[in-house]
Amino acid sequence: MTKRKACSALVAGLVVLAALVGCSGNDNKDRVGVARIQDLEQRITVSGTLRGKRSAYITPSYIGYVRDLRVQLGDRVKEGQPLVRISQAIDQPLNQVYPIRSPFAGVVTQVLRREGEFINETSGSTGVTSGSIMRIDDLSEFWLDSAVPETDIAKIKIGLTSVIRPNALVGATYYGSVEQISLSSRESTDRWDRGKVEFPISVRVTNPDDNLRPGMSAVVDIIAAKAEKVLTLEHEFVHRRDNEYFVVDTSGKEIPIEVGLSNESLVQITKGLDQGAKVKMIDFAAVSPSGKSRR
Known about the structure:
- The protein is 9% helix and 44% strand.
- The chain is mainly beta.
- Among the domains are: 44-51 and 140-226, Efflux pump adaptor protein, beta barrel domain (Elongation Factor Tu (Ef-tu), domain 3), CATH 2.40.30; 60-132, CATH 2.40.50.100.
- Strand 10 and strand 11 form a beta hairpin.
- The chain is elongated and about 95 Å long.
């Protein structure tokens, strides 16, 4: 292909592309939206981790050998029930060794040691250590721990309903209630993201079942506000100029409106439109970089 032919092909391609973009822009500009009556929910979506009411790693207060392991994985235990004995010598008589007892009623969710193993680290850490023997979880309640960005924390209130979807349980939905909201932000552990400010929250699961397990990750939608049977319109049909909102009817006339609640797709129209009103989509080509219409 000669240089002249290559240039001609490139120009032709650019012309076709421009025509396609122009047609697409015109199609969007001519789209019509209809004001409809429907329910509107404002949701804040965050991720979190499920846990039981409380948990504990069982670790001895002195080094020694695992002896007389009395429970197995999945066993339900009572508060004060003997779990295991730790002897400082492998041949030490068991009647000379006091057992470690369960701190609360729960389920044995992890067994980390076998009888006869030597434990060379003692208790003193709040989490799992190389000296931990087992883990006990109180599954009488389930909670989800998460964190909300500072831009949304003012919308979060005690008692808000939440919809929880565990990642491991496809299609399963659980419900919860916001019970705890931190009064201070969480320290960022990422030195490259010091500007990320989040506030820890805890959501109590109101309909737990045996499929839930501590440590599962989940996505939670917190319903921050809800309006029933209100007039709504999609975002792309609502114009904003300075602090005022308006729509453009099918004849091109601007109609001032007032808005209320909004979510990721809908805006509540509180004044200026009637049900069934038809309006034109925002002409994004006529919107300045600042977000204001060039009209």
